[in-house]
Design a protein that fits this description.
The protein has three domains: 370 residues, no CATH class; 202 residues, Serine Threonine Protein Phosphatase 5, Tetratricopeptide repeat (Alpha Horseshoe); 57 residues, no CATH class. Helix 9 runs antiparallel to helix 16 and helix 26 runs antiparallel to helix 27. It is mainly alpha-helical. It has 32 helices and no strands. Its main location: membrane. It is a multi-pass membrane protein. This is O-antigen ligase-related domain-containing protein. InterPro entries: O-antigen_ligase-rel_domated, TPR-like_helical_dom_sf, TPR_rpt, WaaL-like. It is found in: Membrane.
Length: 738
């Protein structure tokens, strides 16, 4: 083996063993620090090891992968998704994604390359064990970070809560990403434990049992503390499935008895948790509270089903090749269900792996994705390369991972772990079957290795530069653009620089520009600078709308910018376009109504807000807008009727309704609304003070004082604020706002 060959092998191994550490990266200098750094590192490392592997594979068949249906189905999947992306709704975004997700075809292509390289290079069991041990070591470190987050010593990134009520996220920035990471490592530790148990004598099993058992316990605790219900259920279901399979296939009567007891225990504990969901203990432990709250009426769960029904409409429209990756947002807007009003307004994922790939790749893409799992199971159970314990555990892992993805979606760390699992199964199954190499003929003589290495290095470097350098530079420019500067002209220039790179962060740069420009309209920034921001924002949002003409997001953003600067006719045209692309989204009706108000067209505004309310009458925000619009339009009878149900619940005590009554000189009509509020919510201190202000402005000082006295009685702690106001009212010196 030549020095160059050894070097290239070393590069590949170093890259493969570096991948488990990617999850530790939090690049605060980049936009989306929990996402971008990990993904750029993954792509660059894969590109480097691919260059090294390609050079060796071209001159030495031994470095080529063996025939495997697992690699075959993965390759077919990547090719079919490329075809779908090429004819998708937004081709550029489908292939390159954006900073928030950093997914797209480029990521699954890198996943394929990593899987091929790892399966070709890692050809001994010892190599794989060392890789798994490395990854388990990182998981233990992250578990310690999670414990420190629970204890309050390390800040939670984008999770929530504190103590046992916290949803930890370690270095992932999202609890669901940490959850699936721990899911993989729990099963990997179980597999290694089973292997160690089988290969050691009875006297040598204690130390590995303690080690692997501790890792499993620690990682399981971390998974639970993420509060990710789908992954928790996936873990439980996968573990039970693994135990049942082992018991049925190979287990003794004792093992089968244990399996039955385990199933019964899960059922009993689940029932006890459901029955105790209202106890203080369950409510105080975040993951228990979330598990106990699982029901079809839960807002998150019900929204998932609504999302699936929206996705189904998209599938029916493009059933064969789908919409291309990263285009669900278009489907979501086009077939928006008004019942989603309480959720975020811009879903870019279905949060269900079946529908996500069905939308992205159509029926062909979905079948190709599912075939990967079928190939994995066949390799596990028919290749003869795995023990019953290994088959059972890895089948349980696949089941748990699939269950996790039925409620969320993949990210770079789960892709890496899935790719590692794929490569390991390929190695074990092809070794057992002694499968032939994919291609055995020599392409170049071994003596040509230096030249082949140079060419492949240059080629891959060129691809890597094209893929990563403009995006990294754009990301840094965007960070500078949204960072406050003493001279806002610098922000404007940084925005221009970021957009000029024309990489996959261009959409986010344009959106940030439009939002900052709209906010700037109300600031003290010089008029000429506002105009420069306005001109650039309008130009860029128009350009973005041309890139993705089916997306309602961009004309809505453009309309917001127009409206902020008083260009109401132009705003109306843009908002009408957004409405055309998403005819049932209430937030677009709100924008249209507010724009009509700005033009003094109260009657038209009332029509918009009425329609928004009628789309889903349970939408409190739409109801308040409707009442407000009726008041402002002078439709007093309609307003009185519309406000009734809101008033009974205390929800009519809203500043928008109050402001409308004040503008009409009808402040007295607000009194029963706030009286209803303090009756329904007697601990709402602000409601008492607002009620007192309404009474006072209506010329009823005695009632204002009485309202403040009631506040003191209901909430004694407000006496220090209420007493001075009472004295001022009595003296006639009060200046009381709303």
């Amino acid at each position: 083996m030549s020095t160059l060959e050894k070097t290239l092998r070393g590069v590949m191994l170093a890259g493969i063993f570096a991948l488990p550490f990617i999850c530790l990266l939090v690049t605060t200098s980049l936009f989306f620090p929990y996402i971008t750094g990990k993904n750029f590192a993954f792509r660059i490392i894969v590109e480097v090891i691919t260059a090294a592997w390609l050079a060796l594979a071209l001159v030495n068949p031994a470095y080529r992968p063996r025939r495997s249906w697992v690699l075959g189905t993965l390759s077919i999947f990547v090719v079919l998704i490329a075809i779908s992306d090429a004819q998708g709704a937004n081709v550029f975004k489908s292939f390159l994604s954006n900073f928030e997700r950093m997914d797209g075809w480029i990521t699954i292509a890198h996943l394929l390359l990593y899987t091929v390289v790892a399966a070709s290079m890692m050809q001994t069991e010892n190599m794989w064990k060392r890789l798994f041990w490395t990854s388990l070591g990182v998981s233990v470190f992250l578990s310690v970070v999670g414990l420190l987050q629970v204890a309050g010593f390390v800040a939670i990134g984008q999770g929530s809560g504190s103590g046992l009520s916290a949803r930890i996220d370690a270095t992932f920035g999202n609890p669901i990403y940490l959850a699936v990471y721990m899911l993989f490592h729990i099963f990997l530790a179980a597999m290694l434990w089973a292997q160690s148990w089988a290969s050691r004598s009875a006297g040598d099993r204690l130390a590995p049992s303690i080690s692997y058992g501790t890792i499993i316990a620690l990682d399981t605790l971390m998974l639970l503390l993420t509060g990710t219900r789908g992954t928790t259920l996936g873990l439980i279901g996968g573990a039970v499935l693994a135990l049942l399979i082992y018991a049925l296939v190979r287990g003794s009567m004792r093992t089968r008895g244990i399996a039955i007891v385990a199933v019964c225990a899960v059922v009993v504990l689940g029932g006890m948790l459901k029955l105790g969901k209202d106890t203080s203990f369950v409510k105080s432990v975040g993951f228990l509270n979330r598990l106990a709250s699982i029901s079809l009426t839960d807002s998150t769960i019900s929204s998932r089903f609504i999302n699936m029904s929206i996705a189904w409409q998209g599938v029916k429209e493009r059933p064969i090749f789908g919409w291309g990756q990263e285009n669900y947002a278009i489907v979501f807007d086009k077939y928006y269900d008004p019942r989603m009003y309480g959720q975020e307004q811009w879903f870019d994922r279905v949060h269900d792996i079946i529908f996500d790939w069905w939308i992205a790749g159509g029926t062909l893409g979905l079948l190709a994705y599912l075939s990967i799992f079928a190939a994995l199971l066949i390799a596990l159970w028919r290749s003869g390369g795995f023990t019953v314990a290994e088959r059972s555990i890895l089948t349980g892992l696949l089941a748990g991972y699939f269950a996790h993805n039925l409620t969320v979606f993949d990210n770079v760390t789960s892709y890496i772990l899935f790719g590692t699992l794929l490569a390991y199964v390929v190695y074990r199954s092809t070794s057992a079957r002694k499968s032939e190499l994919v291609y055995t003929a020599a392409v170049f003589p071994r003596s040509a290795l230096p030249y082949v290495t140079l060419v492949t290095a240059l080629a891959v470097w060129g691809v890597a530069w094209f893929v990563n350098q403009p995006a990294l530079a754009q990301n840094r420019a965007l960070i500078s653009a949204i960072t406050p500067h003493n001279d806002v002209a610098l922000n404007l220039q940084y925005f221009k620089d970021a957009i000029a790179y024309q990489s996959f962060g261009t959409q986010e740069a344009r959106e940030q520009l439009s939002q900052i420009t709209a906010q700037m309209a109300r600031s003290s920034v010089p008029t000429d600078m506002k105009q420069r921001f306005f001109d650039l924002a309008v130009s860029e949002m128009r350009a973005q709308a041309e890139v993705s003409p089916l997306d309602a997001r961009f004309p809505l953003f453009l309309g917001t910018v127009y409206g902020a600067y008083g260009a109401y006719k132009e705003a109306d045209a843009s908002l009408q376009k957004a409405h055309e692309l998403s005819p049932d989204k209430q937030s677009i009706y709100y924008a249209l109504g507010q724009n009509a108000w700005a033009q003094g067209n109260n009657a038209q505004a009332l029509e918009y807000f009425k329609t928004a309310y009628e789309l889903e009458t349970g939408n409190t925000d739409a109801h308040i807008y409707y009442v407000t619009a009726a008041i402002r339009a002078g439709e007093d009878v309609l307003a009185a009727q519309a406000v009734l149900s809101l008033s009974a619940s205390g929800l009519a005590a809203d500043q928008r309704i109050l402001a409308a009554y004040v503008a009409r000189g009808q402040i007295a009509k607000a009194i029963p609304l706030w009286e209803a509020r303090v009756k329904v919510a007697p601990d709402d201190a602000q409601a008492y003070f607002t009620l007192a202000a309404i009474y006072y402005q209506n010329g009823q000082p005695a009632q204002a004082i009485a309202a403040l006295e009631r506040a003191k009685k209901a909430i004694p702690s407000v006496a220090t604020q209420a007493d001075p106001l009472i004295e001022q009212i009595r003296n006639g010196t009060v200046t009381m706002g709303q």
